[in-house]
């Protein structure tokens, strides 16, 4: 959508030369307006380079477990939080005007205190409750909850425009 409207888009991928990214290069106006950057959630400099010159950033990266392949806390929560902090700090450095963090229902629904009630921005999944759950999705739910809370707190500390969707 942004490319078709004439915006320049900076995208981050693990390897810009990997053929699995070829479909991105075929999007409307991609030849002129799409710039792919090599980036990793732990690589602040790579993220900073990609974000430099941007007025808005969509932060969507979060490790996701695949069916039957459980990931540990270190494999999910640490990269999610580190990546979110790195993206937000790079946004501060680049004076980005708006940051959109892609959330998940996981950040709000896992709280036994709120059964069958409408959820709003004051509702958060209970991290203690999540720690008590078993299953390979548990750390993903924790990661999404913690990274969204970090983004909201960063927004308050930096008086920055952050929205979650």
TrEMBL record:
Gene Ontology MF term list: oxidoreductase activity, acting on the CH-OH group of donors, NAD or NADP as acceptor
InterPro entries referenced in this protein's UniProt entry, alphabetically: 3Beta_OHSteriod_DH/Estase, NAD(P)-bd_dom_sf, NAD(P)_dehydrat-like
GO BP: steroid biosynthetic process
Keywords: NADP, Oxidoreductase
Chain ranges of the 3-beta hydroxysteroid dehydrogenase/isomerase domain: 21-118
UniProt KW NADP keyword: yes
Pfam families assigned: 3Beta_HSD (PF01073)
Keyword Iron part of the UniProt annotation: no
Cross-referenced PANTHER family: NAD DEPENDENT EPIMERASE/DEHYDRATASE (PTHR10366), NAD(P)-BINDING ROSSMANN-FOLD SUPERFAMILY PROTEIN (PTHR10366:SF777)
Protein's UniProt name: Cinnamoyl-CoA reductase 1
